[in-house]
Hints:
Layout: E1 2-5, E2 18-21, E3 25-30, E4 39-45, E5 52-59, E6 77-83, E7 97-104, E8 120-131, E9 134-135, H1 139-168
Parallel strand pairs: 1-3
Antiparallel strand pairs: 2-8, 3-7, 4-6, 4-8, 5-7, 8-9
Amino acid sequence: MLCETGVTLSPSRTNPVQVLKLNDHCIRFPTDGLEPGTGYEARISYPASLPTDIFVSLTTAEGENLPKPGNRRLLNVEKLMFHTEPHQPTVQGQQPWVQVHAQLAGVHWSGPSSPQAHQELLFDIVLEPVALGVPREAWPVALIALVLMAVSAAIAPLLAQWAKRILFLNPSGSSTTKLQ
């Protein structure tokens, strides 16, 4: 497999769109700016209209695979999570590189011999620090969601009492029978 070197991945830095030839090629991305004892997520997003299997792995500068951490697949997003060592920004004493390889997983809707048939994959890649498995940039949204859930749980009993008064009392204030 022919591997080329991509842009350097730094935490929370936006990278330009990457182009990867399918099947027998890969791109290896060096990392920079990692902090010791921190978790990171390398996330790749690509168009779902192209039937492609993407493989992401953690390697050394020489291309040797580092132990595969747990990763999960989402629709058209591939993720790789890893942690640096407590006292240095390395993984098993090596500077981590993110390697990406893609294989065509089906036939494009326009047919395999059409000019629209894809031989390259366009994708975005980002490296983000994580805390408790959640990217740090997503924490403000998560905190807002928690506050909204707490507020809704606090006002739910008040709304229930208000609804009972409206539904089961007539204008004079006396109780009516339940609706059937």
